[in-house]
Amino acid sequence: MSADWSRLLASPEYLGKLYDGAPPPTGACDLFYVHIDEREDSVTLGFDTRVFPVNLLPEWRGKNFNAFEFHLFFTGVTGVRVTGWGASEAKVIDLTVRDRGHLDVALGSEASGLAFRAASVRLAGTRAYLATGNP
């Protein structure tokens, strides 16, 4: 698991308030969405998890939700490298915060996956819902 992933998501402007500072680890998050936008030099990643937030928003109360998704929007993206893609690549997530707040993101491995550097990242959206079956 990426320590920078946990540190980033644990901060209040990301998932910290919803998870009391203990967001789900990368192994508990399934990557279900990747959008590379060359017009805006951005990448959006969507994750789904069954680790449900401990602090519910008022609109989620009493609805028996058991699944949560969130999107991270990376801007100032450079050095995009795609060497392959498949289900196994989506399971390996590494996020590293570098100097001046730049982030290195790697999905998969150097031999097969997606990698890029971003100048910044923000939480672009969250959604709670009722999921059936196992993730």
Characteristic key phrases:
single chain; Immunity protein 50 of polymorphic toxin system; mainly beta; Imm50
Offer a quick outline of the entry.
The protein has helices at 3-10, 87-90, and strands at residues 29-37, 42-49, 67-75, 78-82, 93-97, 103-108, 113-118, 120-129. With 135 residues, it is mainly beta. It has one domain.
How would you sum up this structure, described in words?
- This is Immunity protein 50 of polymorphic toxin system.
- It comes from Streptomyces sp. SID12501.
- The chain is mainly beta.
- It has one domain (3-127).
- The protein contains two helices and eight strands; from the N terminus they run αββββαββββ.
- The chain has helices at residues 3-10, 87-90, and strands at residues 29-37, 42-49, 67-75, 78-82, 93-97, 103-108, 113-118, 120-129.
- The strands form two sheets. A four-stranded antiparallel sheet has the order 1-2-3-8, with no helix packed on it. The protein has a four-stranded antiparallel sheet with strand order 4-7-6-5.
- A hairpin with a 4-residue loop joins β1 (29-37) and β2.
- The mean pLDDT is 92.
